[in-house]
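Database export, one record per block. Field names are fixed; values are copied verbatim from the stored entry.
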Amino acid sequence: MSTRMRAISQQAFGGPEVLEVVETDRPVPGPQDVLVRVRAAGVNPADWKRRAGIVGRFGEPPFTLGLDLAGTVEAVGDRVERFRLGDQVYGAVLSPSGTYAEYAVAPEQALAPAPPSLDLVHAAALPTAALTAWQPLVRVAGVRAGQRVLVHAAAGGVGHLAVQIAKARGAYVIGTARRDKHAFLRELGADELIDYTATDFTTAVRDVDVVLDPISGEYGPRSLRVLTPDGVLLDVRGTGPDRAETRDLARARGLRHVEFGFTPSGDDLREVTDLVEGGALRVVVDQVLPLEAAAKAHELSETGRVKGKIVLTVG
């Protein structure tokens, strides 16, 4: 079997045009790692931010982008216990050897069996977005029945999953989105929708227990205004606008403000799988493109107008 593979790499920070298909060495799994033959890779905003140098997590190029994968176990380290050759898995990887490639290595604990009811394209769309919604809503805020949850950018990759997760936990779910996305979001269970292009959400909603905010910036201070005294603002934007004003206002008003970054977790993905298999969670894939079209995928992602997720197919 060849020890080489195709991957998307870049030699410099820049626009989508810096992405190129290269031939490189196939990664080798460590004792607790799994080598996955990648069949599909999800595209996330974090990917183009890393490509552009906005997020410097992995230092200088060259590197391979990509957080999400779904595929087949090709090899396992000698201390791996959960997976065997041929298993279909999905998960998220935080590594400079990313998932826009024919093969990727992931820690055993970052992977879960792929949901049986999903094809690998839809499985690859889930990990980062689902964990970015599920972990703060469930592990941080403890969303429960009867609470009011406001989800910003509700039709996006994180948002459309957050709407469903909050709804599955019995919450009354409010979403902000353009009017042309409202029918889509009502199908996913949203109870109330606000067209942010026409209405200031701070005048339309109040007494919110949890706000999930993938936008940040000026949305932070405004979101604090609609919270109950015991409410929490979950800022899941990651690297981006300065949060100093939001932090100061939250502190002054005695409100909780949490800046959240997801953690790859196979155990949490098993919880996500249970929601999928129980019919409570549906991931929407807006566009499916081949690996070679990674630059086009980034162009689409940067518009901020994607409904659900973009996925690259590999091989």
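Remark 1: The two ends are 16 Å apart (CA to CA).
Remark 2: The first helix runs from residue 45 to 52.
End of record.
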